[in-house]
Amino acid sequence: MVTQFFLFALYFIDWNFYSYQLPAWLGYIAIFFVVVGLLIVLLGILSLNVNFSPFPTPKSNASLISHGIYKYIRHPVYAGIIIALLAYALYSFSAFRILITVSLTVVFYFKTNLEEQLLRERFVDYKDYMKRTGRFFPKKTNS
Questions:
Q1: Fewer CB within 10 Å, N or C, the chain?
Q2: What's the DSSP call for residue 73?
Q3: What is the tens place of the pLDDT at every residue in 79-113?
Q4: Which of 112, 121, 118, 127 is nearest to 66 (CA)?
Q5: Among candidates 116, 37, 31, which has minimal Cα distance to 76?
Q6: Greatest CA separation found in the chain?
Q7: Which of 66, 79, 93 is nearest to 39 (CA)?
Q8: Of 97, 99, 129, which Cα lies nearest the Cα of 115?
Q9: Radius of gyration of the chain (CA)
Q10: What distance in Å separates the CA atoms of residue 133 and residue 130, rounded to the nearest whole number?
Q11: Distance in angstroms (rounded) separating the CA atoms of residues 136 and 131
């Protein structure tokens, strides 16, 4: 958790070690994905409602949420953060922010491993839920 907050702090400092230029139209697409990422975060928080916690351990009175955006992905808050930060890194022409976003994605991956272990212990249906949904992005369905 400390690593996560440290990386967030680094992300918002403009180090500008290496920058690049994108065509303006790509900048607009990047801003669109910042908004998409933030909407995904919001939908995740709203769907969790009182179950929301920044800590990996589920709350004592928590219930398994598998509706709304959680019908498609197990960790939409992390997914939305990844999308928004990566898009803003592209928009702001910051290779450093891209590196931080990749690092945060790795931290989120390991944090979700712990969360999912705790959720499997707490909720009998969680293992089946994992089979149906992707971790950060929807699973490809065989239609």
A1: C
A2: B
A3: 999 999 999 998 888 888 899 999 999 999 999 99
A4: 127
A5: 37
A6: 50
A7: 79
A8: 129
A9: 16
A10: 5
A11: 13
